[in-house]
Design brief:
The protein is about 50% helix and about 20% strand. It has eight helices and eight strands, in the order E-H-H-E-H-H-E-E-H-E-E-H-H-E-E-H. A six-stranded mixed sheet has the order 1-3-5-6-8-7.
């Protein structure tokens, strides 16, 4: 087991402009793949609005109400059509998987971990099991996944005294899978929040767009991985992602992706 710690008082580590550009490019690529799903879910929300509007119009309301309902119907229909049009322009990108060490990706993010530790006033501890094999990964997308989970963890720590804030990132082997876990000792998550956290625009924290975990879900699915959430309110929250050792597209990976999809439906 290899342990690396970053703390708020640690020496800043420079992040190269090239790394920043690469991460931004990876985030945009994931977002492009996620947008069709976001549009689909938004359209599902608009459909009942349109239906209820039409039902109310048949109830013989006064002219003022009918005129407003007609406006709602018209705007809803136009927005639905706009979402359909945008969906056609956003096609999921297929990034190349390459044999990569899970620990290597986590360790190479050292500059990011130090920046986050300083900004969040938290200890960030990496616990990396030795001897893990390389598996097919998209390193750029995996960095976005880790950053999104760690930034959410930092938000969950804001109400905790600065001296006691901690985020742990760990890796280990578990049978046919390699596990990557991100855990914080912050405010925790209720069962209802855990069930809703993958929905677009859902956020527990003010100022957050609610798309971070949507991007994470896309990265997890693209790797044929599965994610579980464990949490106790007021104590901790942990996201654990199981990456199959086989390349996504194999039978085992397909089963893992299907299981993940069912768990989030």
């Amino acid at each position: 087991m290899k342990t690396i710690e970053f703390n708020p008082a640690g020496k800043p580590i420079a992040i190269s402009p090239g790394a920043l550009a690469a991460d931004e490019s990876a985030r945009n690529e994931i977002l492009l793949g996620v947008l069709p799903l976001v549009f689909h879910k938004l359209k599902n929300k608009l459909t009942p609005i349109l239906g209820y509007t039409q039902i109310l119009q048949s109830r013989g309301l006064d002219a003022f109400a009918l005129e407003r309902l007609a406006r709602i119907e018209r705007n809803t229909a136009e927005l639905t059509e706009s979402l359909n049009t945008l969906k056609e322009y956003c096609r999921p990108a297929s990034g190349e998987m390459r044999p990569t060490g899970l620990n290597t990706v986590v360790e190479e993010m050292a500059p990011r971990w130090q920046v986050l530790a300083t900004e969040a006033g938290a200890r960030i501890v990496l616990e990396l099991s030795a001897g893990l094999p390389q598996i097919p990964l998209q390193a750029g997308r995996l960095r976005i996944l880790l950053l999104s989970l760690a930034e959410n963890a930092a938000c969950a720590l804001k109400e905790k005294p600065a001296g006691g804030r901690e985020i742990r990132v760990s890796t280990r082997a578990d049978g046919p899978a390699l596990l990557l876990a991100v855990r914080d000792n912050g405010c925790g998550m209720s069962e209802e929040e855990a069930a809703s956290c993958w929905m677009p625009f859902f956020s527990r924290f003010p100022g957050r767009a609610g798309l971070g975990l949507v991007l994470c879900e896309k990265v997890i699915a693209d790797h044929g991985a599965a994610c579980t959430i464990a949490s106790t309110m007021g104590e901790f929250c942990q996201f654990t992602i199981a990456f199959p050792r086989r390349k996504p597209g194999s039978e085992a990976a397909k089963m893992s992706a299907e299981a993940n999809s069912l768990s989030q439906s």
